Amino acid sequence: MNVLKMLGVALGVLLAAMIIIPLVVLAGLFIWLKLTEEADEEALELEQDASA
Fold first, then answer.
1. What is the pLDDT of residue 50?
2. What's the Cα-to-Cα distance from 41 to each of 9, 34, 46, 47, 50, rounded to whole Å?
């Protein structure tokens, strides 16, 4: 019985890791995208000012 309980806990931890790790990666990519998007907009504004 103890082995089944341990196997269930291990399976639960594995399932949680399979869900949580990709979500953390996606959240990190989303934050990185938002931060670089602001920098790109500033660069575009500078280019437009220089060409005018």
1. 67
2. 48, 11, 9, 10, 14
Q: Residue 26: what residue type?
A: L
Structural element, H or E, at residue 38? helix 2-51
Q: What was the pLDDT predicted at 37? A: 81
Question: Which residue has tokens 């790790």?
Answer: 21
User: For residue range 4-52, what is the model confidence (pLDDT) as tens digits?
Assistant: 999 999 999 999 999 999 999 999 999 999 888 876 666 666 666 666 5
SS3 52: coil
Cα–Cα distance measured from residue 22 to residue 19, given in angstroms and rounded to the nearest whole number: 6
| Angstrom distance (rounded) from CA 8 to CA 46 | 57
